[in-house]
């Protein structure tokens, strides 16, 4: 069933936009048989954006699944450890100074990297791995970054504010580094799936995992690092897109999937499909204007998750 969502969402994204296309037109355009407007729109604009949305959604959902296993909390998401806050401060500071796209992305990456170092250094201080201190450090860092973000928004003027808000709510219009993002998604996803047995043991409790011979400290550090890499890569693609990493793995669990060998690939595929759907709606609803995709991830995700929760209860 989940496999069906992938071609359906990709087809929906390719057909819809400011220039609607029929399935036949999409097929011929993909084959490249014609040099018309539809072919140009599909290859130059729509296909790269749909692929960027899919990989970004997969990155966020996979990161959320790993963090929920790390923290043993189904409400954990990729932004709980302050990574997005650091990236946002870096990106918004560059925008305030009038930097271009490449400099803004570099500044965003630098901010995220500093946040990772701060959380990792304080949370795993002196070799002592304390998951609660890690979580608390991330929450405190997020609060501090939130204050800096508010200050930067106040100092910004005119179009700068609009650009900042789009980054904070997610925007896939200028995605770059797509091949690297695919590599990260496939590499981490395959490794996590192959190590799913250890994730299942960790989910049963740290004491139980230690008794069974699992190197708990190394697993915690590895999971945090993997989730951080996934989150930073997603931030570089689409800015700060919320709710995907929280909702998708949790929704998969509510559907009865708990074993990580199925949870990991299911979350990745459904997360990608979900973000393609949300981004397509963001392009369609107010066409030719494009709305931030984060608005639609929340508008679509909240009622679905509430329905699943009510059905499960």
SSE order and pairing:
Elements: H1 2-15, H2 23-31, H3 37-71, H4 83-96, H5 101-123, H6 131-155, H7 159-169, H8 178-194, H9 196-203, H10 206-211, H11 216-238, H12 244-254, H13 260-284, H14 293-312
Q: What keywords describe this structure?
A:
313 residues; mainly alpha; 14 helices; ABC transporter involved in vitamin B12 uptake, BtuC
What does this structure look like?
- The protein has one domain: ABC transporter involved in vitamin B12 uptake, BtuC (Orthogonal Bundle), CATH 1.10.3470.
- By secondary structure, it is mostly helical.
- It has 14 helices and no strands.
- The mean pLDDT is 85.
- The longest helix is centred in the N-terminal third of the chain and has 35 residues, at 37-71.
| Helix/strand order | HHHHHHHHHHHHHH
| Count of helix runs | 14
Q: Mean of the pLDDT scores?
A: 85
What's the CATH topology name? ABC transporter involved in vitamin B12 uptake, BtuC
Structure classification? mainly alpha
Question: Considering DSSP H and I runs of 4 or more, what fraction of the residues is helical?
Answer: over 70%
What's the story with the biggest beta sheet?
A: none
What form results from the Cα inertia axes?
Answer: globular
């Amino acid at each position: 069933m989940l496999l069906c969502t992938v071609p359906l969402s990709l087809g929906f994204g390719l057909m819809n936009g400011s220039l609607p296309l029929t399935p036949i037109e999409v097929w011929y355009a993909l084959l490249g048989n014609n040099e018309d407007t539809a072919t140009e729109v599909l290859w130059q604009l729509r296909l790269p954006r749909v692929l960027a949305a899919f990989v970004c959604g997969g990155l966020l959902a996979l990161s959320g699944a790993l963090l929920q296993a790390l923290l043993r909390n189904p409400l954990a998401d990729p932004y709980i450890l302050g990574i997005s806050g650091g990236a946002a401060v870096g990106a918004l500071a560059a925008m305030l100074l009038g930097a271009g796209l490449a400099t803004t992305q570099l500044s965003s990456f630098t901010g995220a990297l500093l946040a990772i170092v701060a959380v990792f250094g304080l949370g795993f201080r002196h070799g002592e791995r304390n998951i609660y201190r890690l979580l608390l450090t991330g929450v405190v860092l997020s609060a501090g970054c939130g204050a800096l973000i508010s200050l930067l928004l106040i100092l910004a003027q005119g179009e700068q504010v609009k650009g900042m808000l789009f980054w904070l709510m997610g925007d896939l219009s200028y995605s770059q580094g797509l091949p690297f993002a695919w590599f990260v998604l496939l590499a981490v996803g395959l490794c996590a799936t192959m190590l799913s047995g250890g994730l299942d043991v960790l989910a049963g409790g740290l004491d139980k995992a230690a008794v069974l011979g699992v190197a708990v400290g190394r697993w915690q550090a590895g999971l945090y690092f993997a989730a951080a890499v996934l989150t930073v890569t997603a931030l570089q693609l689409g800015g700060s897109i919320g709710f995907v990493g929280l909702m998708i793995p949790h929704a998969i669990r509510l559907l009865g999937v708990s074993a990580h060998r199925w949870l990991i690939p299911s979350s990745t595929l459904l997360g990608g499909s979900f973000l393609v759907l949300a981004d397509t709606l963001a392009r369609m609803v107010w066409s030719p204007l494009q709305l931030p995709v984060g608005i639609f991830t929340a508008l679509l995700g909240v009622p679905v998750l509430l329905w699943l929760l009510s059905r499960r209860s």
